[in-house]
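Consider the tokenized backbone below.
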């Protein structure tokens, strides 16, 4: 039976997959650090697989193949020469000795596949996960692969390195030992959580790379012991058992009894079973025993070296080995959790720089109004910038005395920390409101207007602005807008406004454009004739164009 391949039914796009969700049966139960599972589930990201129920983090194993790099099907690239990226799996062998293989072929990197533009080249990755029923061995194979320079740089900086294997949380609380073989270097890991340590990505060898995890067999490694086990690959001398008395074998019989009288022949020698010169037939210890150093064998080599640093496990001193950490221990030989200060602080929680001594680090200072009684109080501010005000500031464009035809513009000034509205008071039908918002009101005075009051109300700070009263100037005539022969178009305008000054105005005219905040945004002297005025940089909204004593409302809409 051939390998099963991921069906297009699980593809995210018509041309290929990206983060497909699917479940694969192993065909047997596999044990991984007290976790047993019979299927793998790919769950919505790159190459992350759950062994067991994906929702049960306590008993599910989690495999990140190729770290946490996000992969995608090269078929999603509009380049027929790249081909697709099959995901396939196969279980082979007789029951009890089956081997499961999960394989990615010609897989692409998400950032390249979905870059949105054609690239000169694309990465292509090949790798496998293998599970061996009989031995409990787990292997991660990386085959011949092409990586672009950008992809290689990304993989070298990826936190999870080549791959990461996490037992279920229950597995982290129980003893479990694996022997990891990385290329030609054998490193032993003493606890399951060590499997999640980063394995640096340094580029693919030409023939690929293999990582093999073998469950450790802990026990007695000495052939002279009664419980010697040739399968032991993680020696534990303290578990070795020797005969009850010197000169006896493991069944209690004399090793040397020439006259067969049941009394062991007297023989001086070393009777300590763990000694390098132990004599199993000796009945009397002669004080010649030579014991190896704790953790070493008789050849001076470490029995167990979890991290492969040349220091035997029994001599390791756990602690933080990073001199930059707050809990650095110069005597430590075995890495343990390091503690670092927060940014801009030292290990004592003090600011590295605090110029004004207020307990807030210079880099974290935020300017604003720090007075809780002020209308523009900023709760997040740590440094007062002198912007506090007792009432909400407002601006009136023009005079408080107006004429029929005048445009009234009232606005809130920055910064104002409030959410609220503008509440005008006027006789209905005597003010044409062009715009009303939480920061501005624009209106045109109509016939019958007498007066109007404006104010701002800030709900969140409980502050009002001062009341602003605008009244009709009884002694002034109505304001007239441009009349022929003035020409002004288009209105509304988006980019360029055309203004035609009458030929009779031989001396020209001063033209000025004012925005809704009362700010002059354009000012120039115009001669008679046609002129193009660029308004592309002006903000949207009502502006006033003032030429001499005449006014025209202009609506800018980009």
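A designed sequence for it:
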């Amino acid at each position: 039976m051939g390998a099963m391949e991921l069906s297009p039914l699980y593809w995210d796009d018509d041309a290929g997959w990206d983060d497909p969700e699917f479940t694969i049966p192993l065909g047997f139960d596999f044990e991984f650090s007290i976790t047993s599972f019979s299927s793998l589930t790919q769950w919505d990201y790159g190459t992350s697989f759950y062994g067991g129920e994906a929702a049960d983090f306590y008993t599910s194993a989690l495999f990140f193949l190729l770290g946490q790099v996000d992969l995608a099907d090269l078929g999603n690239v509009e380049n027929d020469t790249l081909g697709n990226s099959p995901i396939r799996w196969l279980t082979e062998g007789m029951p009890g000795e089956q081997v499961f293989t999960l394989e990615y072929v010609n897989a692409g990197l998400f950032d390249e596949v979905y870059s949105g533009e054609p690239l000169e080249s694309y990465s292509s990755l090949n790798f496998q996960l293998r599970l061996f029923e009989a031995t409990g061995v787990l292997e991660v194979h990386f085959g011949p692969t092409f990586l672009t320079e950008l992809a290689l740089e990304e993989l070298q900086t990826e936190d999870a390195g080549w791959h990461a294997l996490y037992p279920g949380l229950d597995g982290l609380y129980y003893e479990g030992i694996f022997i990891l073989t990385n290329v030609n270097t054998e490193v032993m890991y003493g606890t399951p959580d060590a499997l999640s340590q980063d394995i640096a990505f340094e580029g693919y060898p030409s023939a690929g790379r293999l990582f093999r995890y073998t469950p450790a067999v802990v026990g007695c490694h000495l052939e002279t012991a009664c419980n010697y086990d040739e399968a032991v690959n993680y020696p534990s001398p303290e578990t070795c058992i020797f005969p009850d008395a010197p000169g006896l074998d493991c069944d209690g019989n004399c090793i040397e009894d020439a006259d067969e009288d049941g009394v062991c022949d007297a023989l001086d020698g070393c009777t300590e079973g763990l000694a390098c010169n132990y004599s199993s037939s000796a009945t009397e210890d002669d004080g010649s025993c030579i014991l190896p150093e704790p953790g070493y064998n008789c050849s001076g080599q470490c029995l167990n070296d979890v991290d492969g640093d040349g220091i035997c496990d029994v001599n390791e001193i756990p602690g933080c080995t990073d001199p930059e950490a707050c809990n650095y221990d110069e005597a430590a030989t075995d890495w343990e959790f390091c503690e670092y200060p927060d940014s801009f602080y030292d290990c004592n929680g003090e600011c590295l720089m605090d110029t004004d001594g207020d307990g807030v680090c210079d880099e974290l200072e935020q300017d604003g109004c720090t007075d809780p009684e002020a209308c523009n109080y900023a709760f997040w501010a740590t440094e007062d910038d002198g912007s506090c005000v007792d009432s909400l500031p407002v601006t009136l464009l023009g005079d408080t005395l107006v004429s029929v035809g005048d445009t009234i513009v009232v606005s809130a000034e920055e910064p104002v920390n409030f959410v609220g509205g503008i509440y005008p008071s006027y006789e209905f039908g005597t003010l044409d409101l062009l715009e009303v918002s939480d920061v501005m009101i624009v209106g045109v005075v109509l016939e019958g207007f007498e007066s109007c009051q404006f104010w701002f109300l800030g709900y969140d700070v409980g502050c009002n602005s001062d009341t602003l009263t605008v009244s009709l100037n009884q002694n002034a005539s109505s304001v007239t807008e441009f009349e022929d022969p003035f020409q002004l178009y288009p209105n509304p305008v988006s980019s360029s406004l055309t203004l035609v000054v009458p030929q009779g105005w031989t001396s020209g005219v001063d033209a000025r454009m004012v925005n809704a905040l009362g700010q002059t945004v354009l000012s120039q002297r115009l001669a008679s004739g046609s002129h193009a005025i660029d308004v592309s940089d002006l903000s949207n909204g009502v502006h006033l164009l003032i030429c001499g004593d005449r006014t025209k409302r202009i609506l800018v809409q980009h």
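The chain has a mean pLDDT of 82.
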